[in-house]
Amino acid sequence: MMSTTTTDLTRGDFTLPGEAGYEQLTLRLAKKWGADTIRDSDGTQLSPEIVQAGYDIYSTVCLVRSVQPWARENRDKLQQNFLMSYPVVAEKATTAITLLKGYFTEQFVVNFKDNPKRWWQVFDRATGKEVPARKWSANEKKGIVTVTDTEPGHSYTVNFLVFRIWEEISMYNHLTNDWGDREHLAAVDPMHPETQQVLLAFLEKWLREHPDTKVVRFTSMFYNFSWFWGADRATLRDVYSDWGDYEMTVSPRALKLFEKRYGYRLTSEDFVNGGLYNSTHNAPSRRYRDYMEFIHDFVIEFGRKCIDLVHQHEKKAYVFYDDHWIGVEPSSGRFGEFGFDGLIKCVFNAFEVRLCAHSKGVETHELRLHPYLFPTGLKGEPTFKDGGNPTLDAKNFWIDARRGIVRAPIDRIGLGGYLSLVEPFPDFQDYIEQLAKEFRLLKSFHASDRPWTAPFKVAVLTAWGDLRAWTCSGHFTPGVELYDVLESLAGLPLDVQFISFDDVVKAGVPRGVKVIVNCGRAGTAWSGGHYWSDPRVEATLTEWVRKGGALVGIGEPSALSQPGRNFRLAQVLGLDRDRGERIANGKYNYVAPAKNARGVEGVTEHFITADVAGALDFAKDVDGIFVLGGDTQVLAERAGEKSPKLATHAFGKGRSVYFSGFKVSHENTRLLHRAIVWAAAQESGWSVWSSSNVKTEATVFPKAGKLVVINNAGTDEETVVTLGDGKTTKRVKLEAHGIAILEV
Amino acid sequence: MMSTTTTDLTRGDFTLPGEAGYEQLTLRLAKKWGADTIRDSDGTQLSPEIVQAGYDIYSTVCLVRSVQPWARENRDKLQQNFLMSYPVVAEKATTAITLLKGYFTEQFVVNFKDNPKRWWQVFDRATGKEVPARKWSANEKKGIVTVTDTEPGHSYTVNFLVFRIWEEISMYNHLTNDWGDREHLAAVDPMHPETQQVLLAFLEKWLREHPDTKVVRFTSMFYNFSWFWGADRATLRDVYSDWGDYEMTVSPRALKLFEKRYGYRLTSEDFVNGGLYNSTHNAPSRRYRDYMEFIHDFVIEFGRKCIDLVHQHEKKAYVFYDDHWIGVEPSSGRFGEFGFDGLIKCVFNAFEVRLCAHSKGVETHELRLHPYLFPTGLKGEPTFKDGGNPTLDAKNFWIDARRGIVRAPIDRIGLGGYLSLVEPFPDFQDYIEQLAKEFRLLKSFHASDRPWTAPFKVAVLTAWGDLRAWTCSGHFTPGVELYDVLESLAGLPLDVQFISFDDVVKAGVPRGVKVIVNCGRAGTAWSGGHYWSDPRVEATLTEWVRKGGALVGIGEPSALSQPGRNFRLAQVLGLDRDRGERIANGKYNYVAPAKNARGVEGVTEHFITADVAGALDFAKDVDGIFVLGGDTQVLAERAGEKSPKLATHAFGKGRSVYFSGFKVSHENTRLLHRAIVWAAAQESGWSVWSSSNVKTEATVFPKAGKLVVINNAGTDEETVVTLGDGKTTKRVKLEAHGIAILEV
């Protein structure tokens, strides 16, 4: 049921991918879906018929791969990075290491031009020590480094600079789509003033040549996320791949400028890190954080020049929040300095909707929805072809994205890909029409209102803090608990913020925050890793909970091993983890969970478990948890093991809840929600604007007087929603993937 | 079938526990079982009727708890240890810590006599730093330490000295058997010269008062294994319990003598170690190893005086390898200096048989078999009472112990407990008669012969090396893989030795060793922990395998994390472990195991897996294993995960095999055996003296010309044994728990 509204739900805020050769279809669907903007996809040029139909035109440009002839002639201006050679075990006193062995030589060429002795490093990994430069030599012809005085049985590696001769996104598309002998595009490095001039000249020309374009969409700015390919794509294509790592920004020029600015010199090992590089998932070093700041500064500085040019041509500048987004940092406090008009995020999940909405300093937040109009999906499954069911796909993606859209304002939506593919799927065409109306309705609620949230704030504590709010490192990755937690949080009526350890040290826990979530495995940026070595973090948070704060710890919260202790907040959590060193230490024999009110074995009845209807499933959770004493209440434990899965602890005036892991599901989202509310000691307010069925969620827009009830499942559902008085209930029936709007 | 033999199988080498009041039974069973020795159990005094029946008499004495009135009068001569108080979170600038909170105050009394400021330490566990002595004070009356200038939110602990007022073995028996107001016995500390005098005087008197005693069995020497009890036995009885830790030997006098001898001062934290103490399972520090040496030296020195006294009285001195065995170290090269005549080990498992047999410097190796003649077993299950089946228990214990007895010479066996309990179990009486004959037969084979072993040596590499050969830390503990491995090895036709990392650094891999087994979790003494930080270990072993050696790595072999590498022998193993830091690093896509020749899914056909008949079960094994390249062959992987369970790798001229875990079973013992033989590149000799049925094992005594085939199962089994030519086979039928002797 869709309530009546005065908003025009049939038109606007929708970007449609035009397709040359399908002019009629393009215009028909633009009308049906209420599009106001038509974009050209990568490699397609819109025909005049479309361009002149009165729609805003939106064109993509990827600057760093736009100047191919110049790139071919200026190979020393191509982008670079450090690579670590695969380890070689010395057999004699002289050891030769083939630098690119194991790497994709269509992507990488060793940079012998910049003095290897200055920029490279050789390591003896058995001792962990650098080999002095006089003990090795580089041979350009053979592509090897020869190390002398090597110790037999020790492993040696070389950190070396490479130019990248094939830009990764075009490489991926080229090889995935078998583009044969089509040109390999290379990305130039704007760190060089010459490159900047060339790019600005290109952009100036391009802007002049695209008079009909209203919106220039950058894909994105200059540096792609890190993606190192292996020699054999069948067995190891992605040697290293991280959506947030700055590896691919490195060059001798950048390092020299860094040294000048920061007063100290970075080494290759600051980037290589034994082959782990600077994965966003691992707690970042201080030196690397400085380097990120340096690059962010540069990207803003030169990016601003490009955007100014766009504005001079009276066009708008949008940026795609992916691909070459490194250094753009839409969550940074400085993002506004770019002057972008819009930010576009392609989304699979609710947390990505929140990620997009979270960015300040930009007027328009636009989502690119899935499925893309491609014959197959990302895993090769059929979409717009025989065997595919794109309508069902669209519904399933939509119910995930919608949870985020209900909670946070999004300005526009759109699709990507080849529009012609939808022609044989009229039900898909109808569904997108309906979806677009649903979006416009939800947007209208946000226009002058904010959805109700519980009367306390929640902070997610990670090493990255707000810089990586509402994501970990790109799209959802199974096995990283925080993604699951974010996906749950993204649709809950909670006011969530993201804080870092540095924030805590600097200013304590922000005012209004009642619950801190710390979720992740030991050593990760999410749990915090070495950031817990600062005792001020432990002291501040311990004191804060004792005085009435609350901690929800998931996985290995506050983990940083020291003798006898693995969780720095063990005293707060009332438990710790045995990583194998406590075989001789006895474990407190806690009261085993029995059966909850719904007859679920192994689950203690509690406010938190009140909706638990089956065994808890946290996927691969943490084992070896032991409680410190009788005041830790274990609500559930691992099957067949005396290791809590879910436990609560009172600490001073505060509370904590521990989860041994997390996996997003309707049931677990509810469990997390209840845990947070319990930790905040706000159980009495639980029923306000609640929905009984865990597959459904209720959101109230108080000023508008609208209660939005969504069905997050692909089955028809019924639920009882409770109104703002916490008492009055209404029964609501929802179709599969459906929505209901109640006037309240 | 039992072959004919000229040995008298009916008499000798058997120790029977006599029981006063059951003289007739004692003498009847002594005859039936062929006992040559009758012992008094703890607390029972044999009647003259038994003593004078012509059997050797064997009496137990526990010196350190033998002088109770003196102990009560000399409380400062009781044994001591350090305890760590439970952490207290500071709320203000002054923090009081109740020292014994959480500990069993019938076991411990705080030692305020020796200056706390000299011996104790207070730690701020948030910073990891010691609190200066001027910032805390001890209050004897209140039993607290008050710390000043404490930081709110930091956790503080106190390491303090305690006297132990109740000796742990008597405490355990007292409380387990509800002995009510029977006296609490305390253990005196022979570190004091006065105590030594008192003990020697007691022993002298005792020896005079036991003219009929032929063998004095010490239980054991002076210091019990570490066992700290908690305040509430229902929830946490064993706060800390380790069979091999020297915690309970500490005293100010010992520490002063240590400092004098070693030239440096040990601190309380060397013992407390953040509450982990010095568990045998964790890689020991160098300082603690020095301290062990110091105590071993002392125990030998004073022990020798006691034994000399026994010899002066023309009695023999045996020592029980348990209880107060700390400092005795029967695997030490110095054990012979004690001058003991016999060593007695109670055994549940084959590895304990090997442990006993392994000890040099003693003439007689005696086993105490299970079940003990008690109404209930260790876990409270019925044995010699209604519902029990002691005969079946005895058979099941015997088939485990027998595997070890077949492989290594044992001189005597015996039982313990209350003989009267066997009266209602005539089948048990008959079975022990048969078992004793079986033992004597096997002993006769060892008399002038050694069982055949494969023509290469195997070394188990741990931090402890030979000092902890054939055990980890006491009886079998599930979850510590090395116990399982030892139990498998204990019955295999392999020449096994135990080496330490220090051995490897000092002298390389011993000559003749072809296979090294390194098994355990990261940080444990078994895997090696910090001992892997010496690059010589990595270099020596890597070179050794490259030149033709072999490594069998189990669990987390060679684990010591550094950036990008967790296993120091990753290059040798062809694999490493991702502990969560490699989310962004791609993993080599190895060829998945398919199906072996017996149709087992997920198991690659290979020499190693040739007897695998079902899915591999290694209990809680290690996940996150990734292979380094295509030359690592994965034979089995974890269910539903791309993480190898079993893999092989060729490295230079050598080989390696990796197991993700291990659990003793007939199938896995065979798998380990095959893996070792394959690693040694000795597949061609596999069939020599082999037995086809994995539940059976064959052992040949070449000189005696006897092939012993044992059935390790409780079911009738049939097997095909292959003789020494590797071709001729014989079919053998074995009863449940049975044995067959073939003339060959």
From TrEMBL, chains A, B:
Pfam families according to UniProt: Lact_bio_phlase, LBP_C, LBP_M
Residue ranges constituting the Lacto-N-biose phosphorylase-like N-terminal TIM barrel domain according to the UniProt record: 12-453
Domain Lacto-N-biose phosphorylase central: from-to ranges: 457-683
Annotated ranges, domain Lacto-N-biose phosphorylase C-terminal: 689-742
GO MF annotations, alphabetized: 1,4-alpha-oligoglucan phosphorylase activity
Superkingdom of source: Bacteria
Record-given protein name: 1,3-beta-galactosyl-N-acetylhexosamine phosphorylase
Originating species: Opitutus terrae (strain DSM 11246 / JCM 15787 / PB90-1)
